[in-house]
Amino acid sequence: MKQSVLLLFLLTAYLFPQIPSRYHSNADLAAALKQLASRYSSVVTVESIAKTLNGNDLWSVRIGKSGAGERKALLIVGGIEGNQPVGTEHALRTIEWLARSYGTADSITSLLDKTTVYVIPRANPDAADAMFASPVSERETNNAPFDDDRDAAVDEDGPEDLNKDGFISWMRIRDPRGEWIIHPDDARVMRKADASKGEKGEFRLYTEGIDNDKDEQWNEDPRGGTDLNRNFTYNYQFFARNSGIHQISEAESKALADFVFDHPSIGLVLTFSSNDNVTTPWKNEPPKGEGNTVTSVAKEDEELYTALAKRFTESYGLKDAPKPVKGEGAFSEWAYYHAGRWSLSVRPWWPGELPKAKETAAAKDSVRKPAESKKEEKDRTDDAAVKTLKWYDAIGTKDAALPWTKFKHPDFPEKEVEIGGLRPFVLSNPPAESLNAFAAPFIRYAVSVASQLPSLTIRNAAVKSLGDNVYRVTADVVNDGFLPTNSALGVKSRWVRNVRVMIDAGKSAAVSSGRTKQVLEPIKGSGGYVTVSWIVVGKGSVRINAESPVAGSADVNVDLK
Amino acid sequence: MVKFLSIIMLSTTLLAQQSREFTPSALKAMGAPNTPKVEVAWNRYYDTKQLFEIMKRIEKAYPDLVAVKSIGRSVGGKDIWMMTISNRNAGDPDKKPAMYVDGNIHSNEIQGAEVVLYTAWYVTELFDEVEWIRDLLNEKTLYIVPSINPDARDYFIYNANNMHSPRSGLAKRDDDGDGEFDEDGYDDLDGDGNIVFMRIKDPNGRWKEDPSDTRLMVQAGPDEKGTYTLLGWEGIDNDGDGSVNEDNPGFYDPNRDWAWNWAPRYVQFGSDRYPFTFPENQSVRNFFLSHNNIAAAQSFHNNGGMILRGPGSKTDEGTYSRQDIQTYDFLGQLGEEQLPGYKYMVIWKDLYTVYGGEIEWFYGGRGILSFTNELWSEFDYFRRAKDSTRDVSQQDIYRFDRIMLFGEGVVPWKSVRHPQYGMIEVGGIKKQWTRTAPSFMIEDMCHRNMAFTLFHLYHTPKLSVDSIMVKDLPGGLKEVTAVISNSRVIPTHTFQDVKNRITRPDWVSLTGGKVIAGGVLENRFLGILKEQKIAPARLNVENIGGMSSVAVRWIVDGGSSFTVSVDSEKGGTAQRRSR
């Protein structure tokens, strides 16, 4: 089994010949993006939309036919959760795939001729720095200074790599006053003692470090900051840990929000985060808030979300996803509930089934699904750490957990202290050599949803003479895309424009009834239409234009005769 | 030469001061000086530039008391000017308990600026004469921003508007969702600078002229034929969409742009992208986040004669604890006395629901007691002794115009040609009043509201170390007990602050001996001590309540004379040495 998995990973390397199967530091990411922009300059442009406190750029990438103006668009966001670099890797590979396929694969070429794909591959670059620093540490926050323990000293007690193994891991102190015990299913993992089962705590557990400010708390005020995925306005929690001083308080979250607002063409947002609504689609529920507050997906949008979600679960075979995390100030929920865009979020990786062979064209059927996975399913515990370690064991990765080793800790001279436990990042990110293998289904999903955007045309434009130089002009404004021209929340929030229809009767005719400009209600997808009509007096021809940033633009000229 | 001149100038100044004190030009009324150093007319309104010039004149006349600085820029690039008012010779203004005051967040609600500026003028002019004011500026600081909305203040003053426009700031917005920004605003059809009503003669109309004043339109009776149809505010359909004036400059509400209980536009009309979308409000946010000494705040709006406190919505009721409401009530009731015709009210309950309002963030987000005053009450027209501010009809307002303003306040109906409606008439009340006071009532409004502000500032915490008792313990150790009191109504931390750990605790420190142990006395009389095991030489005190005290105790090794000091972000500092 181990061999076949390795083989799978190696075979999939070919999928992204320009992207090595490894995690990219901020410098590596910048270099990779610049290289793609220069190699595929006709379809890829890269722009920095913010500078972080660490001095990193927040990159946005535009993929689409160059020279074309603003067209309907999909936005892909990776790395909004600082400890999920895998999402960034998927986003980067998406850019490479689309750029390389433009002009060589017909489906991608025709998609990008009509649609723009924006990618913000790493929404929290400062958190990513921690992955490439020495020691390596897992962090969800940006680098904004914050006095977590309200002692008027800022960021004064962070963790330290006491045993010099290059990682900030865990330390456990044997102490009957502690709340923790060794996990009965896996000795590498700690869990809280369950008093209702008569279990007694045996350890105290902290992140690795010393009590720098001598307040008998360990690592309670580390460097940073704000978790950007807790900093958006929808269901924001004031005064919650890492949620920021208020909503959209950070340069990064503001740049992300402004990017969406400043691109009215973005009709759909795909986020890699644990606020998953793809494996578990949103359900409409009775409203809970006051006034017009919206607390669940709108009834009229619900089935479309379900349909979009199914494309992922049915086509790509990734199952067994962990329960979605309900957002508190999450970006992807904000994108729908407050910014009015269709918004899909999918967890970029979980220790579930390994990718199926059909995802890797070259591997074909030569790699079978691991035999153990069925049994694993049955053995499954609720403890993510135990499950994850099993997964790593199955593919033969030995260093997913660091061995508990004794350490003489200056703060606990009388006690037995051990350092070890889960290696940073293993819970939410796969091994580097498997990145290419895991990216493919997510990329294909992104392409699939980009193809569902609404698409305007005008049909059945007709002129009927009502007498001397008096005409009735009619036309159908049709949406040939899958999604309607607006979602219920797009209408409600008013951040997504409805279709605007204008008529220009020229100099020798005048519109005598109706408005020369009107804004239509949303038009359903798959051929839904609205008929518009005017009475025009005069001669010559009239030009009708229907347009919306998220659905495109269509024109027709008709002669008055 | 220069020296000589400056000696002359110095002696002139001395002479001026003496003459102010000893040779009044006539009987000085209580209140404003007869010959102020800075002459300002308080019977008119000022534009942004004029406001700034007055601020600079006050600063120049009273450099020890006033500093003018910009806290940021508006959408249109104008500075947001703040005056910091405090006696600099009696301590750093940023370390004293302080109050923030602003006006004019709503563009058309201009008189907040004059009220706030009057406050600056009055306290500086009377600093020497009135002990109460001198003590106040020695102990406390005022941060005042006459207008936090300079672009739209000037737009209201210098462009054709009605009394309600623009409420918004001037960042462009697409109000009607047609992809165009601010393309269909009001149009001043007759070019007189006023946006008033349009009417058209219509034998089937439902409106007619009021017999008591033909300038006023009233509805025809249910069984009566009217003579006019009203066509709304002066304007044309500029963009051919069949609607008139539907996309004015703006529109967003700068007072729905604050973080506490912020809601999107479908819940709260007037909110925009997210809290602090606009640079004017960002300036205030940044100032608050860097000035934890602000213990009180006030915002001036118009109109209706209200002293408003949060919460802005029913769902936020739980945020306002009993303790803090007691403090609010004390100040609000004082305000009702100082401001006849004004009512102390709760925003959501007594006015309407507001999400994301400015003063709600001051309290909810920063734990600072804050009010909004709605300046100018309808009570002020005739000061009838009715227990309602809503006892004034349209007829009353037109009557006030006739018998008090001699007809100056209303544009009489006149014919104009409208490109879409044809021949119509325009007429109605001018923008300069009904929401703002007429000239002869401005100073009264300024003074009374200032008095409310100054008492709010007065009641920010005032701390002192009242006593230090030293008792010998066996073994040569000493027990030191100190009482720290707050002699004002506002606590060093509101309950909202304590609950959410917004600002740091107050620090009470002992020097002069080696502290062995220490803590806060939970019960001073029984001697029940809550020990602070870590670093007890500087005790963390969660709060020092209004008109109350905290006792602390240490066990000290060595020393004979001890100094106890208190250092509070919102309460300032104080210290005492033991005998």
Write up what this structure looks like:
Chain A has 561 residues and is α+β, with helices and mostly antiparallel strands. Chain A contains twelve helices and 20 strands. Chain A has three domains: 294 residues, 3-Layer(aba) Sandwich (Aminopeptidase); 91 residues, no CATH class; 104 residues, Immunoglobulins (Immunoglobulin-like, Sandwich), CATH 2.60.40. In chain A, the strands form five sheets. Chain A has a six-stranded mixed sheet with strand order 1-2-4-3-9-10, with helices on both faces. A four-stranded antiparallel sheet of chain A has the order 8-5-12-11, with no helix packed on it. About 5% of the residues of chain A have low confidence. Chain B is 25% helix and 27% strand. In chain B, strands 1-2-4-3-9-12-10-11 form an eight-stranded mixed sheet, sandwiched between helices. Chain B contains 13 helices and 23 strands. Chain B is α+β, with helices and mostly antiparallel strands. In chain B, strand 1 and strand 2 form a beta hairpin. The interface between A and B is large, with 41 and 38 residues.
